[in-house]
Amino acid sequence: MGLRLTILGSGTSHGIPMIACRCEVCRSSDPRDRRTRTSALLEYDGLGVLIDTAPELRLQCVACGVTRVDAVLLTHAHADHVVGLDDVRRFNDLLGCELPVYGAADTLARVREMFRYAFEDDPSYPSAKPQLRAEPITGLFEIGGRLVTPLPYWHGPARVLGFRIGDIAYCPDCSAIPDETWPLLAGLDVLVLDALRRRPHPTHFNLEQALAAAARIGARRTLLTHIAHELGHAATSAALPPGVELAYDGLVCEAG
User: What's the whole-model pTM score?
Assistant: First the structure.
């Protein structure tokens, strides 16, 4: 069985439409311009691997028909990527077991501070809660017999992780790719890559930088994500080169 990728959310930390904004994109009737915060689901061999837990995770899972999550991968601990973590408790109930949460040591330390109750076995806790097991990433690892390759890169001054499983790589919140990571991105069917807006930004690729990185990587298909309200879906897509497209909430693709 191949890999199935669902883009659960494709928006920047504000989400689109942004609060109290009347710009053309925030008022757009195109459903592809309605962007929840960035997260994704990889499915293979009957398993579901969730990448990041956006604030709208419950709504994303309902909208995309997600019924199974066996593990969580965290790229970093910024709020727009982790504050939906409590919602994975539903998958604890469905599977009847705890869920492993994989991340860099500093990411897991921060998440454990934010969601201490979810990592503790406390029978006296007065409500339903997630049952999570922290799994620090120190190199290559496996989930369900598939190799997971951590992809270190820079998000401004912070060193964060993307992930590659099979021929799919997921790299949001990226401003620079170090020399050691470029070879890990070779031979991709699908690349999901940060592209915030047209103007430069100190912690994200802008559209020009993302297109340059995509051309160097040469994936068969590149999906741009973590998109701000400065990039309308239809107008931006019309000007993109072949093989590159804007992601949108609910987009599904498959790879070997």
Answer: 0.97
